[in-house]
From TrEMBL:
This is Dual-specificity RNA methyltransferase RlmN. Residues 391-413 are annotated as: Disordered. GO terms for biological process: rRNA base methylation; tRNA methylation. Residues 133-377 form the Radical SAM core domain. Its EC number is 2.1.1.192. The gene is rlmN.
Length: 413
């Protein structure tokens, strides 16, 4: 978790001072300089308490009231926070704001899947997807605009890396979805799980992601159990260890191949952290707490990694993991049929080939569910997350049109 020292990096700073010679001359208009206000979405509980104490000169518990207003009741206007005194509301107005990303596009699928295209600034947008299922509702959250890791089968990789998302931009995705769903933490849970599996490599944006996940799991935030928040990584080994020291969320690893030659081709990060190093880090993560499992995602691509020998290699690797953590079934495998996107050289295997691969795993006693494709009619399936895409696809023009409308609307407001 972040300590109170982190707050110095996040809290209020002031705008540049007006030159004294200009300020002293009555005939030179002094530009009005607004102090920069802190976006309270950026602060996890301890930081918000520090903010109340150190910046506002208030009791720390006041922070709890504000967290409930923001994350439980979706109120962002301080004047509507009626159990805060007038003076405190005025101070908050002066030093802080609560600013969520803007909704550029909002699409609902026939199967209940919901997708938002969210504008992070004038140039960048990301996607967030909500997937309802029996008894659960999972939100797939992005951590970066684009991604630098260049996995060969990934739609996001085609746009390169733009920037990390701030904590506010990550938790803002949860806030927008939860508000839309009418989610009430601890009472009416519609949003039961969060997976950090959207655009970007979450461990490459470590501090902001860990802080956002802390708000997701905080009772004053979204009150999700540790195991219901899952971080998915392509395999950044040192950061997996660091995550194990700071957090207790579920870990998922994008594996996609069980031998180094193929994996290095599909996931270039494997050249830096090959499978043995990665699996050792996963074992260390699992061993921190008895009963911890790790999920391994395996995207099935026709003729690439869907052959019987690939299944056998995968079984061997998973068995070795189970032995190392001394727990049968500690390695969980999710099979994900590849979802084609424009320009890709990969193909989805036939249903028959997918079933045959799954059977080879099942025959060894391994449970390996095949992930259903959801939200096809709104391009919301995994691997299709793509925000500001610099090509001539329909989505790009749609995005630009929407962003243009949004900007015009903002200007008119
Ligand atoms: S699969 Fe994940 S880590 Fe790899 S390029 Fe895509 S977003 Fe990045």
């Amino acid at each position: 978790m972040s300590t109170s020292r982190d707050i110095n990096a996040t809290l209020v700073d002031t705008a540049p001072a007006v030159p004294t010679n200009a300020a002293a001359r009555a005939d030179v208009p002094v530009p009005k300089v607004e102090p920069k206000r802190t976006n309270l979405f950026d602060l996890e509980r301890v930081q918000l308490e520090d903010f109340f104490e150190q910046v506002l000169g208030e009791k720390r518990y006041r922070a709890h009231q504000v967290m409930k207003w923001i994350h439980h009741r979706y109120v962002t206007d301080f004047s509507d926070m009626t159990d805060l005194g007038k003076a405190l509301r005025a101070k908050l107005e002066q030093h802080a704001h609560v600013h969520a990303p803007s909704v550029v596009l909002d699409k609902a699928s026939e199967d209940g899947t919901h997708k938002w295209l969210l504008g992070m600034d004038a140039k960048n947008a990301i996607e967030t997807v909500f997937i309802p299922d029996k008894g659960r509702g999972t939100l797939c959250v992005s951590s970066q605009v684009g991604c630098a890791l260049n996995c060969q089968f990934c739609s996001t990789a085609t746009q390169g890396f733009n920037r990390n998302l701030s904590t506010a931009e990550i938790i803002g995705q949860v806030w927008i979805a939860a508000r839309h769903l009418g989610n009430v933490p601890h009472q009416q849970r519609r949003l039961t799980n969060v997976v950090m599996m959207g655009m970007g490599e979450p461990l490459a944006n470590f501090d902001n992601v860990v802080r956002a996940m802390s708000i997701m799991r905080d009772d004053l935030g979204y009150g999700l159990a540790n195991k219901r928040v899952t971080l998915s990584t392509a395999g950044m080994v040192p950061q997996i260890d660091k995550l194990g020291e700071l957090s207790d969320v579920s870990l998922a690893v994008s594996l996609h191949a069980a031998n180094d030659e193929l994996r290095s081709e599909l996931v270039p990060l494997n050249k830096k952290y090959p499978i043995e190093m990665l699996m050792d880090a996963c074992v260390r993560y699992a061993l921190r707490k008895p009963g911890t499992s790790v999920t391994f995602e395996y995207t099935l691509m026709k003729g690439v990694n869907d052959q019987p020998q690939h299944a056998r290699q995968l079984v061997q690797l998973m068995r070795s993991f189970d032995r190392s953590v001394q727990m049968k079934g500690a390695a969980k495998v999710n099979l994900i049929p590849f979802n084609p996107f424009p320009g890709t050289r990969f193909e989805r295997p036939t249903d028959q080939a997918i079933r045959a691969f799954q059977k080879l795993l099942n025959d060894t006693g391994m449970i390996a569910p095949v992930r259903r494709t959801r939200g096809d009619d709104i391009d919301a399936a995994c691997g299709q997350l793509k925000g500001q895409v610099m090509d001539r696809t329909r989505r790009n023009s749609e995005f630009r049109r929407s962003l243009g409308q949004q900007e015009r609307g903002d200007a008119a407001a």
